[in-house]
Amino acid sequence: MSEYFYALDARKHYPALREAQPEMFQAFLSFNAQVFEKESALPRKVKELIALAVAHTTQCPYCIESHVKAAKKAGASDSEIAEAIFVTAALRAGGAFAHSTLSMGVIKETETTGQKK
Question: So where are the chain's domains?
């Protein structure tokens, strides 16, 4: 993928971020490495599929690209990647569905208090 809403060359500004907050920058890199590179209860492929799903939820094009590549490298199939994306889509839709109860409550409350609909 070569074109995004945000230019890929925006990454060239990471050195400025590192310079502005070197300790926090390094802490983030260490944390990220601990999460993704250390052997743990979750296999690397599973971590990358989770990360890919979250990247779709947060709508981060850089993250989507990097985690698709990392998931493929970790052995994820195209079908597994697509399924992770659909799990994300279902959860996003489910969130809207679950929050519909808030709207329905306001409607009910408005009817009860006599406010205009």
Answer: 8-38, 42-115
Per-residue pLDDT of 88-99, as tens digits, reads: 999 999 988 999
Q: How far is CA 9 from the centre of its chain?
A: 21
Q: Is the CATH number of domain 42-115 1.20.1290?
A: yes
Q: Which two tokens stand for residue 109?
A: 């409350």
Q: Are 53 and 84 in contact (CB under 8 A)?
A: yes
Angle made by CA atoms 33, 35, 41, in degrees to the nearest 5: 135
pTM of the model: 0.78
Query: ∠ CA(23), CA(28), CA(31), 5° rounding?
Result: 125
Cα separation, 70 vs 45, whole angstroms: 8
